[in-house]
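@channel sequence for tomorrow's demo:
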Amino acid sequence: MSGHLSPRRPSGVRRARRTDIAALLPVVVAPPAARVRALRRLLASLATDVYVQLADDGSETLTGVVAVGYRRSLRHGGLVGTIDTLAALAPTGRRDEGSADTADRNLPAPAEPPQLADALLEELLACAAWRAGRRGCVALEAPGLPTRAGAVAQRAGFTTTGEPHLVLLLDRAQIPPVTNTAEPEERP
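structure tokens (generated this afternoon):
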């Protein structure tokens, strides 16, 4: 690995399409019934980029995926890209062991040697950096990456901030619906 990431659009990487949804389903943690809808919405969103790496044999087989969401940041003073997903995919379309916590997912063993998967992850990181730069981002974050992907990101130049990354998963069924009142709120 280079030790410094060179933002670029690697060959064999393209924007994900709706036809890729079946191969991307294993990387979505949503309940099974909501996965397809979640992917359709994500692929259509202007606030997120999803790029896939294609197999070297010229086929449309997906070997990796990176998803980057964009938001404005007060702390960073501009637009920030956040890597939501970085994963090498086994030939079946499932996540590679080094790209996700597979202990509770019964996923297959890695499809390729770790050094090849690491090179693939670095290519996807370069693509994410290239795309974030083109969108005008001042920073690209990679919170909560699995161990192997996190190690690849650090070797590529990402640094740790020492801040914990906390996540609260919301159950939408427990959130009360927004009601529209007929009368405007009174102001003092």
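heads up for whoever presents: The CA atoms of residues 133 and 155 lie 20 Å apart.
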